[in-house]
């Protein structure tokens, strides 16, 4: 059954958004992601942590002057998993 092929990590609208943004950008910082996706600090932090724990995101923390800056980018594993998930979604839509 096609529904069994869905990647549960990407069930959330926020995680789909995060991955979509990162698939077309080399890296994106926390504040930009938050604004683009209209998420709260806590909500974004929760979702990026889940994606990081799954091995789909790389997190880089740095300072610009005295301000902390967190950058996110997609790992090769994350890119592959997201592309597979999108392929399953496409199949599901075509078969519906």
TrEMBL record:
<dbReference type="InterPro" id="IPR027395">
    <property type="entry name" value="WH_DNA-bd_dom"/>
</dbReference>
<dbReference type="Pfam" id="PF13601">
    <property type="entry name" value="HTH_34"/>
</dbReference>
<dbReference type="InterPro" id="IPR036390">
    <property type="entry name" value="WH_DNA-bd_sf"/>
</dbReference>
<dbReference type="GO" id="GO:0006355">
    <property type="term" value="P:regulation of DNA-templated transcription"/>
</dbReference>
<dbReference type="InterPro" id="IPR036388">
    <property type="entry name" value="WH-like_DNA-bd_sf"/>
</dbReference>
<dbReference type="InterPro" id="IPR011991">
    <property type="entry name" value="ArsR-like_HTH"/>
</dbReference>
<protein>
    <submittedName>
        <fullName>Transcriptional regulator</fullName>
    </submittedName>
</protein>
<feature type="domain" description="Winged helix DNA-binding">
    <location>
        <begin position="15"/>
        <end position="93"/>
    </location>
</feature>
